[in-house]
From TrEMBL:
InterPro entries from the UniProt entry: YdcZ
GO CC annotations on file: plasma membrane
Key words, A-Z: Membrane, Transmembrane, Transmembrane helix
Species: Methylobacterium terrae
Name used for this protein in its record: EamA-like transporter family protein
Protein backbone atom coordinates (compact mmCIF):
# COMPACT_ATOMS: atom_id res chain seq x y z
CA UNK A 1 0.00 0.00 0.00
CA UNK A 2 1.54 3.36 -1.00
CA UNK A 3 2.67 5.53 1.91
CA UNK A 4 0.97 8.63 0.47
CA UNK A 5 -2.37 6.81 0.42
CA UNK A 6 -1.99 5.76 4.06
CA UNK A 7 -0.91 9.24 5.13
CA UNK A 8 -3.86 10.76 3.26
CA UNK A 9 -6.26 8.42 5.07
CA UNK A 10 -4.69 9.32 8.42
CA UNK A 11 -5.03 13.02 7.61
CA UNK A 12 -8.68 12.47 6.68
CA UNK A 13 -9.25 10.86 10.09
CA UNK A 14 -7.59 13.78 11.86
CA UNK A 15 -9.64 16.28 9.86
CA UNK A 16 -12.82 14.33 10.60
CA UNK A 17 -12.22 14.66 14.33
CA UNK A 18 -11.20 18.32 14.20
CA UNK A 19 -14.21 18.97 11.95
CA UNK A 20 -16.50 17.83 14.75
CA UNK A 21 -15.14 20.55 17.03
CA UNK A 22 -15.24 23.21 14.33
CA UNK A 23 -18.82 22.31 13.41
CA UNK A 24 -19.85 22.34 17.07
CA UNK A 25 -18.31 25.80 17.54
CA UNK A 26 -20.07 27.02 14.38
CA UNK A 27 -23.39 25.69 15.67
CA UNK A 28 -22.93 27.41 19.04
CA UNK A 29 -21.99 30.70 17.38
CA UNK A 30 -24.89 30.62 14.89
CA UNK A 31 -27.39 29.10 17.34
CA UNK A 32 -28.94 27.02 14.55
CA UNK A 33 -27.83 23.44 13.80
CA UNK A 34 -29.47 23.33 10.37
CA UNK A 35 -27.92 26.66 9.36
CA UNK A 36 -24.53 25.39 10.50
CA UNK A 37 -25.05 22.22 8.42
CA UNK A 38 -25.90 24.35 5.38
CA UNK A 39 -22.72 26.39 5.88
CA UNK A 40 -20.75 23.14 6.15
CA UNK A 41 -22.37 21.86 2.94
CA UNK A 42 -21.48 25.09 1.15
CA UNK A 43 -17.88 24.76 2.31
CA UNK A 44 -17.90 21.14 1.10
CA UNK A 45 -19.03 22.30 -2.34
CA UNK A 46 -16.19 24.84 -2.48
CA UNK A 47 -13.62 22.16 -1.62
CA UNK A 48 -15.01 19.88 -4.34
CA UNK A 49 -14.86 22.67 -6.90
CA UNK A 50 -11.28 23.50 -5.88
CA UNK A 51 -10.33 19.83 -6.32
CA UNK A 52 -12.03 19.53 -9.72
CA UNK A 53 -9.07 20.81 -11.80
CA UNK A 54 -6.87 18.11 -10.21
CA UNK A 55 -9.32 15.20 -10.08
CA UNK A 56 -11.54 16.01 -13.05
CA UNK A 57 -15.17 16.94 -13.37
CA UNK A 58 -17.42 15.87 -16.21
CA UNK A 59 -21.09 14.99 -16.42
CA UNK A 60 -21.56 11.33 -17.38
CA UNK A 61 -23.88 10.24 -20.16
CA UNK A 62 -27.38 8.95 -19.50
CA UNK A 63 -26.35 5.33 -20.07
CA UNK A 64 -23.79 5.63 -17.29
CA UNK A 65 -26.31 7.33 -14.97
CA UNK A 66 -28.76 4.49 -15.62
CA UNK A 67 -26.17 2.00 -14.30
CA UNK A 68 -26.02 3.60 -10.86
CA UNK A 69 -27.71 1.38 -8.24
CA UNK A 70 -30.66 3.10 -6.55
CA UNK A 71 -29.00 2.98 -3.12
CA UNK A 72 -25.87 4.73 -4.37
CA UNK A 73 -27.84 7.97 -4.76
CA UNK A 74 -28.41 7.97 -0.98
CA UNK A 75 -24.72 8.53 -0.12
CA UNK A 76 -25.12 12.31 -0.02
CA UNK A 77 -28.11 12.02 2.30
CA UNK A 78 -26.07 9.74 4.56
CA UNK A 79 -23.29 12.32 4.62
CA UNK A 80 -25.81 15.02 5.50
CA UNK A 81 -27.23 12.88 8.32
CA UNK A 82 -23.70 12.33 9.63
CA UNK A 83 -22.92 16.05 9.59
CA UNK A 84 -26.18 16.82 11.44
CA UNK A 85 -25.42 14.11 14.00
CA UNK A 86 -21.94 15.56 14.44
CA UNK A 87 -23.29 19.08 14.88
CA UNK A 88 -25.92 18.01 17.41
CA UNK A 89 -24.02 15.29 19.31
CA UNK A 90 -20.27 15.98 19.28
CA UNK A 91 -20.48 18.90 21.70
CA UNK A 92 -22.58 16.87 24.12
CA UNK A 93 -20.50 13.70 23.98
CA UNK A 94 -17.04 15.22 23.58
CA UNK A 95 -14.54 14.55 20.82
CA UNK A 96 -13.24 11.23 22.18
CA UNK A 97 -16.62 9.59 22.77
CA UNK A 98 -18.23 10.93 19.59
CA UNK A 99 -15.29 9.94 17.41
CA UNK A 100 -14.88 6.62 19.20
CA UNK A 101 -18.54 5.74 18.69
CA UNK A 102 -18.64 6.77 15.04
CA UNK A 103 -15.30 5.17 14.14
CA UNK A 104 -16.13 1.94 16.00
CA UNK A 105 -19.59 1.77 14.44
CA UNK A 106 -18.01 2.43 11.06
CA UNK A 107 -15.41 -0.29 11.61
CA UNK A 108 -17.97 -2.91 12.65
CA UNK A 109 -20.15 -1.93 9.69
CA UNK A 110 -17.19 -2.07 7.31
CA UNK A 111 -16.25 -5.56 8.47
CA UNK A 112 -19.84 -6.69 7.79
CA UNK A 113 -19.88 -4.97 4.39
CA UNK A 114 -16.54 -6.57 3.48
CA UNK A 115 -17.58 -10.00 4.74
CA UNK A 116 -20.72 -10.12 2.59
CA UNK A 117 -19.43 -7.96 -0.27
CA UNK A 118 -22.36 -5.56 0.12
CA UNK A 119 -22.73 -2.11 -1.50
CA UNK A 120 -19.99 -2.67 -4.05
CA UNK A 121 -17.13 -3.73 -1.77
CA UNK A 122 -14.93 -6.71 -2.58
CA UNK A 123 -15.56 -9.66 -0.31
CA UNK A 124 -13.10 -10.10 2.59
CA UNK A 125 -13.93 -12.68 5.24
CA UNK A 126 -14.61 -11.46 8.78
CA UNK A 127 -11.97 -13.72 10.27
CA UNK A 128 -11.12 -13.93 13.95
CA UNK A 129 -8.59 -11.05 13.83
CA UNK A 130 -11.08 -8.67 12.27
CA UNK A 131 -13.77 -9.66 14.78
CA UNK A 132 -11.27 -9.28 17.65
CA UNK A 133 -10.24 -5.86 16.31
CA UNK A 134 -13.87 -4.74 16.30
CA UNK A 135 -14.33 -6.04 19.83
CA UNK A 136 -11.24 -4.17 21.00
CA UNK A 137 -12.52 -0.96 19.39
CA UNK A 138 -15.85 -1.32 21.19
CA UNK A 139 -14.04 -2.06 24.47
CA UNK A 140 -11.84 0.99 23.92
CA UNK A 141 -14.86 3.22 23.47
CA UNK A 142 -16.38 1.76 26.63
CA UNK A 143 -13.19 2.60 28.54
CA UNK A 144 -13.04 6.13 27.12
CA UNK A 145 -16.70 6.65 28.04
CA UNK A 146 -16.09 5.81 31.70
CA UNK A 147 -14.18 9.00 32.47
Amino acid sequence: MPVLVVLSAILAGVLNTVQAGANTALTKALGQPVLAALVVSGANALVYLAAAPFLGLAWPGTSRLAQVPWWAWLGGAMGGAYVLAMIVLAGRLGAAVFTGLTVSAGLVTSVLLDHYGWVGFAQHAAGPWRVLGCGLMVAGVALISLS
